[in-house]
Amino acid sequence: MPRNPYARLFAIPGATAFTVGNLIARLPMGMFSVSAVIMISGARGSYALAGAVTATGLAATAVVAPWTARLVDRHGQARVAVPATAFAALGSLSLLLCVRYGAPDWTLFASYAATATTPNTGGMSRARWAHLLKGDAPAVHTANSFEQAADELCFMLGPVLAAFLCGALFPQAGTLIGVVLLLTGVLVFAAQRATEPPPRGRTETSPGGRTEASPESPSPLRARGMPALLVAFLATGAVFGSLEVVTIAFADAQGHKSAAGAVLALQAAGSCAAGLVYGAVRPRGPLVRRQLLCGAAMAALMTLPLLSVTVTDSLIALSGALLIAGMATAPTMVTGMTLVQERTPEDRLNEGMTLAVTGLLGGIAGGAAGGGWAVEHLGPAAGYGVPVAAACCALLVSSAQACATRTPAPPPARPRVPNGT
């Protein structure tokens, strides 16, 4: 086997094929919301309406995604992901047509809400790695690091591609091409049946010859430490959401709003690079302690953007600070996802990881709202205190979790007293 840990991953038969399909399917995840905002605001002249429609879709995804993931675990990835993606694609096409032909506003909300059935392609890919690398913790760590770097890359390139397509071609181009990429990627991914984890909804034959349904594990929410872990994902999402809004506001205040995308891309690039390096390093120590250290690094480095804008008031200094600050987010996410995999029952792995993503999305929405409020009332520079506060909350939750899971030392053994003494 190759010595490079990433080369070892892709030496597994079928790994390259399902990864290529998954990356094609994952790229539109960073395109749809930006495309919808550009398309709706351009046709209806209202950013408020565009924001409300995308927020509705996010809320619908938070409700529907865990149910879709549960079906994936129970019946298999290919059997559920393909029809769920087709239904979501119809929702995107419906949104496109409603905007194009001036349908009532409520049709925009209904159409975008229908896209909530989009399966968690990143979670399905991580589930395949967990199945293929079962029992090899270092290789699972490398695979999770690669998947996190892929997430950062797709969410860095997706908005740029969407904005380019909508501007260079026509306002609906970002949504239309995103649908084509999503369908193509999911079909390629689902076609790789050899690497797919077996569905957990199969029946078992009892000793008497009767066919009975195999018992289902309890919900991942009932697993020990899982609620606290989801709260940590919520706080981490708030870091991302607030950082995006505050950076756009700061760049606008500097008269360089068009540069905000490039500045945010530096943060994602730092995270992507750090994730790949973190995956190449052999992990040491318990997972909970590693999560605590990564959370502490994220909380410390998130002070750099606040210091840079407070001291220099420079967009260039902020760019460098975001590049460095981003280097702590990928290791934090990788360790958190590995903990989710460890604590989730094997037959509900997609559901557990989708719950983590749902918590992250909820945090992004809340962080965006908090960052917007801070910018409005305190100013763009002071707004960078919101991601710092969110990172500190994630660290506090991780610290409480580490204390709760620490096993007490056994009491000292009593000396044996001989009989008659």
Keywords:
mainly alpha; Growth Hormone, Chain: A; two-stranded antiparallel ribbon; 2 strands; transmembrane transporter activity; MFS_trans_sf; transmembrane helix; MFS; MFS transporter
Written description of the protein model:
The protein has 421 residues and is mostly helical. The protein folds into two domains: 1-198, Up-down Bundle (Growth Hormone, Chain: A); 220-404, MFS general substrate transporter like domains (Growth Hormone, Chain: A, Up-down Bundle), CATH 1.20.1250. Helix content is 74%, strand content 1%. It is built from 18 helices and two strands. It has helices at residues 5-10, 15-26, 32-44, 47-75, 77-100, 105-114, 121-132, 137-168, 173-191, 226-253, 260-280, 287-301, 303-311, 315-325, 329-343, 349-378, 380-383, 385-405, and strands at residues 203-205, 211-213. The protein has a two-stranded antiparallel sheet with strand order 1-2. The chain is globular and about 55 Å long. Mean pLDDT is 80; it is low at 407-413.
What is shown here, in short?
This protein is an all-alpha fold. The chain has 18 helices and two strands. It has two domains: 1-198, Growth Hormone, Chain: A; 220-404, MFS general substrate transporter like domains (Growth Hormone, Chain: A, Up-down Bundle).
Overall domain count: 2
Tell me which CATH architecture of the largest domain applies here: Up-down Bundle
- Helix amount, in percent? over 70%
Beta fraction: under 5%
Mean pLDDT: 80
Biggest sheet features:
2 strands, antiparallel
Helix segment count?
A: 18
So, the CATH homologous superfamily of the largest domain? MFS general substrate transporter like domains
Secondary structural class: mainly alpha
Protein name: MFS transporter
InterPro entries: MFS, MFS_trans_sf
Pfam families: MFS_1
Region (Disordered): 195-221
